[in-house]
From TrEMBL:
Chief site of localization: membrane
Stated name of the protein: ABC transporter permease
Single GO BP term: transmembrane transport
Transmembrane segments: 7-28, 70-91, 111-129, 135-151, 239-258
Native organism: Aliiroseovarius halocynthiae
Signal peptide range: none
């Protein structure tokens, strides 16, 4: 029986604990984060407020729980956009290697890579205004060439296999071969890359919200909480430490999961471990 890598266990423990808190927030939070209570502002951690309150009197634990909704949702949807559009483009480019279609797809990917997600977000929000939705679009667009390159690179190695030749002889077209034979054989690469892009999506959302291009008040997010806490970093550092640790723990956990999945799914690494 294959032994699961240690980093996979550690990453799963970090990520699932935070994810559980976020899921619980859909049903319950200690306090309503939309209610301001100035009389309770900047309260130290206590039995009533486990992590204390912010400068508006809002419970910091409740803010972290609800803030994770936006941060994680943006990352999930952005990765979904990137994978949903990038993988078909990568498969299409690999199936038509060396053709004009391959060149158009890959040069288009290079063009998107030339603009970081922050620049894309600025362009989008300058037109439509800052919001979590526009942050999803910006990060999702940046993820498209990432998955296209991974899918194309993995698919090119599969197209040279003997069973692909047999599929061609059997009369299967490029699209059918890509769906039935290529995609299942590169699924492990896409899963690992998806985990990594998920963690990067959380970082990107935090960065966009920090500069005011992501979630807008009163909607909480981890990046927005960091932005609100920056003026009190010396007087009340816990306001920045709490969301900062949440981001670090989630990103670290997802990266460890990605490393563990790579070790688990890559046959060469698995054979070396055995």
């Amino acid at each position: 029986m294959t032994r699961l890598p240690v980093q996979l266990w550690i990453g799963a423990a970090l990520s699932t604990s935070l994810l559980a808190a976020v899921l619980i927030s859909f049903l319950w939070t200690p306090y309503d984060v939309t209610t301001l209570n100035i009389a309770e502002k900047l309260k130290a951690p206590s039995a009533s407020y486990l992590l204390g309150t912010d400068h508006f009197g809002r419970d910091l634990l409740s803010m972290l729980m609800e803030g994770g909704r936006i941060s994680i949702s943006v990352a999930v949807l952005a990765v979904g956009i990137g994978m949903g559009l990038g993988v078909p483009l990568g498969l299409m480019a690999a199936a038509n290697r060396g053709s004009w279609l391959d060149e158009v797809i890959m040069r288009g990917n290079d063009l998107i890579f030339a603009f970081p997600s922050l620049v894309i977000a600025i362009l989008i929000t300058a037109t439509f205004g800052p919001s979590a939705t526009n942050a999803i679009i910006a990060i999702g667009i940046f993820n498209i060439p990432v998955f296209a390159r991974v899918a194309r690179g993995g698919a090119l190695t599969i197209w040279t296999r003997e069973f692909i030749m047999a599929a061609k002889v059997a009369g299967k077209g490029k699209i059918r071969i890509s769906v039935e034979h290529i995609l299942p054989n590169i699924a492990n690469l896409l899963i690992v890359q998806g985990t990594i892009q998920f963690s990067l999506g959380i970082l990107a959302e935090a960065g966009l919200s920090y500069v005011g291009l992501g979630a807008q008040p009163p909607t909480p997010s981890w990046g927005r909480m960091l932005a609100d806490a920056q003026t009190m970093i010396y007087t009340t550092p816990r306001l920045a430490i709490a969301p900062g640790l949440a981001i670090v723990a989630m990103v670290l956990g997802l990266n460890l999961i990605g490393d563990g999945l790579r070790d688990l799914l890559d046959p060469r690494i698995r054979r070396a471990r055995e």
